[in-house]
Amino acid sequence: MRLSLSLAIVDMTKNLANNKNATQFECYFYNKTSTKHDGPYDWSEDTQSWVLSAFYYGYAGFMIPGGMLADRIGGKMALLMAVFGSAILTLLTPLFAYVDVYAFIVLRIVEGALESPFFTAMAILINKWCFKSENTIFVAIATSGQYLGFIIMQPITGYLCSLSFFGGWPLGFYIYGTSAIVWSIIWLFFVDESPQESRFLSDEEKNMITNYSIKGENKAKESLSLRKLFSCIPLYGICIAEIGAGLNACIIMNCLPMFLSNVLGVDIQSNGLLNAIPFAVSLFGYMSSSILVDSIRGTILSLRSARSVVFMTSALCAAIVGFFIKTAGCHPTVVITVISLNLFFQSCCTSQIPPNLMELFPNYTGLLYGILNTVANAISLSSPYVVDVFTKGHIESSEHWQHAFDLACVLTIICAIIYVLLMRVTPVEWAKDADYQNLQSS
């Protein structure tokens, strides 16, 4: 729901590149048959950056309170509140966009705040249901839905935007909002907070999952002080890794449809199809790297070494590919291939961060995941502005877009080096379960 706007905004707004003579575009002679659609809203580049970033103001701003709420009420109810509340506001999106752009921005901020507990709630549930020895692949499977949703949503959104029925672009928000409400009803009646509360498991199954999960049914034995939090060096490493891995991915997630439309002149329906391809490739990288780490940990390499090798190698490959996006020229298929390779390696990096956090802080998952996601979404919030800084007045120029990609690539390498140096894969002393020694043997 949150990312459908990144493509819909192309159809919602008047094409900024149309204000220039067509022959000024470096890709004009290659894609001169492309038709650029003008939407109903005449929003400037700055306004579009605000609209795309608004969600992340609420999302990042309420991430820590959202994590604390999820710790208090449980992952199941926190996740339900996040999805259902966001679904209602998604249904209201076309109305607010029509009323006033500032009302629309406020709606997106509130929607971000409502969704803030989503991944922290998921992390809490994973800690209770996941075997410690399989945490990397379990996290990858549980969070792969964000990639699948994006892969499915982008072509559908592109097709809906090409229709004249109901204005085209509002249809996506109505369909996604309704689908999320249906999902919320299913979640409420069929999902349980923990194995011990499950109505569908035998006692033997409940005990097995509880005994070998990351957290089990233990509670934190001591309160978390700010001194402990701010003196935790591995936490800084994880946050730095999120910054490096996040900026590049967020620029592409939030701004790729604008790049395809304004630089390459891709029509809205093809835009949706092409935009889905990098995320299908990214999902493959996310899953395969998680399987690889869990397969070689404890056999070929230690867990720390496995994470370090996969993260550092992937970061270097992502940066190298990212430096050459502009050289792909004006052919959309070639450009998408290069971007897909970049996101493949980037997703191999990001797959290592959430399970590493859960390894370090099994008793404080909600709060610490909230801190991590605050950092991650501060990056998401900044990505449209980063693009705007480099492309303002030159939104049709791949050379100016490349400057934004270059910044993300340099940051990826620097942050990866710092993360690998600070990495730790065993719980910090104040975050251990009472039964940690037993769990170590699993």
Name the average pLDDT. 79
Biggest β-sheet, characterized? none
Provide the succession of SSEs: HHHHHHHHHHHHHHHHHHH
Rg from alpha-carbon coordinates? 22 Å
Helix content: over 70%
Overview of the structural elements:
There is one protein chain. The protein is mostly helical and 442 residues long. It has helices at 4-12, 45-61, 63-73, 75-99, 101-115, 118-129, 135-143, 145-161, 170-190, 203-212, 226-230, 233-262, 268-296, 303-322, 332-350, 353-360, 365-391, 398-422, 436-440. The longest helix has 30 residues, at 233-262. The relative contact order is 0.16. Residues 18-23, 216-221 and 434-442 have low confidence and may be disordered.
SSE blueprint and pairings:
Elements: H1 4-12, H2 45-61, H3 63-73, H4 75-99, H5 101-115, H6 118-129, H7 135-143, H8 145-161, H9 170-190, H10 203-212, H11 226-230, H12 233-262, H13 268-296, H14 303-322, H15 332-350, H16 353-360, H17 365-391, H18 398-422, H19 436-440
Descriptive key words:
442 residues, mainly alpha, globular, disordered C terminus
